[in-house]
Amino acid sequence: MTSGELQDWADRVAARDRRAMGRAISAVENGEVEAAALLKLLFERALEADVVGVTGSPGVGKSTLVEKLAAEYRRQRQGVGIVAVDPTSPFSGGAMLGDRIRMQSLAADDGVYIRSMATRGELGGLAPTAHDVVTVLEAAGCRTVLIETVGVGQDEVQVAHLASATVLVLAPGMGDDIQTFKAGVMEIADVFAVNKADRLGAGKVQQELDAMLTISPRPDGWRPPVVQTIATTGEGVSALCEAIAEFHAFGERTGLKRQRRRQKCRGRLLSLLRQRLFEQVYRELRDGAVDRWVDEVLDRRSDPHSAVEAMVRAGPGQ
Amino acid sequence: MTSGELQDWADRVAARDRRAMGRAISAVENGEVEAAALLKLLFERALEADVVGVTGSPGVGKSTLVEKLAAEYRRQRQGVGIVAVDPTSPFSGGAMLGDRIRMQSLAADDGVYIRSMATRGELGGLAPTAHDVVTVLEAAGCRTVLIETVGVGQDEVQVAHLASATVLVLAPGMGDDIQTFKAGVMEIADVFAVNKADRLGAGKVQQELDAMLTISPRPDGWRPPVVQTIATTGEGVSALCEAIAEFHAFGERTGLKRQRRRQKCRGRLLSLLRQRLFEQVYRELRDGAVDRWVDEVLDRRSDPHSAVEAMVRAGPGQ
């Protein structure tokens, strides 16, 4: 691809050409050779968006809430990107939930771009890819990007690092082990949404969160608001938007936003570095070399650490 | 450390000396320089254990179930290791749930070794570290290692790659989005446990799982059994052990176990390779170099991809 063609591609992304955007995101996800060069051009065109992470256990109603949040931001005339991060299937390597036919209320809206993504199997690297997808959306003029992830694993903590605000969605009836749950996730939540607020037990969840927030205040002085929502009807969604905006305003006021931007940028550089170094050696190793080392280790002729040391020695630049 | 001291350390691990084991696991987790050399010696002494992954959403009762499973394996006179993987706190960098005072019924049993672990913050690398911790436990004679993880993120899929069998724990009352939940996790489950089986809705969960397993059979021909458990009383736990043993027997019979061992070994080598390459460059970069690049990118004097290319060029061996 010539540099003129790349420029043209970047310009079409900036003009919100959906095909150009889709091709750009695919190029990023598949690690195509043009991706890095294109991203450099897109980065120049990108205005930093508010990236809102929406996370929580399966079944709490995240997708519906994200759909309604997007509609709310659209009412504010903002371009909105939605990235749904799905766990990768260990068998197929693809996103488990696939390109779900969902968020149909938004499908006809030209100002909303929705994309499912998964990690790239053996090549890994959800975090750098997600950052790059956000850059594509920013270059296409999205002022808000909603990132939906499942659960509270390391992945989600990484994706939370990429967000300027993280919404943790809870719902009544998640079991009695909520103490453990809260310990594991409260630190990533800037705003809590108690969804399905019309259900029995919503008040109890609110009370428990309030108690926890009083007992363990955050070191940065922000007290995460708890917003009751009913995603299916849209109730509470504009209050949720306001709570997110308040957090952003707090961040501006206190320097927290600046600090987060630094952390986020640092995390992006390091995860990209990790990915680049690995891909370099991985490409050199193709042709059955990994499988040969697997045999050595399985037959106990070598151990994993010795095998990897040999692979590193065989890598480029050595 | 001399090679005689290393040999002595490895011998003491093999003799189940708890202090030597604790030090070995810490050395692995902290990436200490002796770790790789020690692991080579331990690998020689390690008999491959059955590694059983136990995963599921927060609140379903995983910890209690793991405790009861461990007691069951102890009744079979097996050495048992328990590894609890906690999400890393984005603030403190440590395991969020910490060294929980739990599984107290096992604390006095010399044949059980319990350890919490988290990822190593910026250095990342849960998967290679978890593999290495399993090697330490195998060298110490554990015939079964139970690995408890939270959720269904990429982390858990990685840890599932390390398991010879994965148990997915569900509980009644997880909300109505169970179709989505199942799509995201069914593929990693070799055995389903419906815990809190005395609660309202346990029968419905069982029915839904049965229906799903009938509609979407696994490509490898294994039909994951669904076992009802009440972890708090221990009911159903021996049936769960039997179901896991049946899966292992199926794997032996069909070659699935062999295939999984290959995948697992390949995954271990690649994640270790990724880690090694990164650490090599990261060490060279210390002294504020990363922060200087962060400033360049934040001030828009550079973009992330150009910055990382420069870091790679500055790395060792170039």
Task: Report a brief summary of the structure.
Chain A is α/β, with parallel strands linked by helices and 318 residues long.
Secondary-structure blueprint:
The structure is a homodimer.
Chain A lengths: L2 H12 L3 H12 L4 H12 L4 E6 L6 H14 L3 E7 L26 E6 L8 H14 L2 E7 L5 H9 L2 E6 L7 H8 L5 E4 L7 H14 L10 E3 L8 H18 L1 H43 L5 H11 L4
Parallel strand pairs in A: 1-4, 1-5, 2-3, 2-4, 5-6, 6-7
Radius of gyration of chain A: 21 Å
Q: Describe the oligomeric state of these chains in a short phrase.
A: homodimer
Secondary-structure arrangement, i.e. CATH architecture of the largest domain in chain A: 3-Layer(aba) Sandwich
Segments of chain A where pLDDT lies below 50 for 5+ residues? 88-101
Number of domains of chain A: 3
SSE string of chain A: HHHEHEEHEHEHEHEHHH
Largest sheet of chain A: 7 strands, parallel
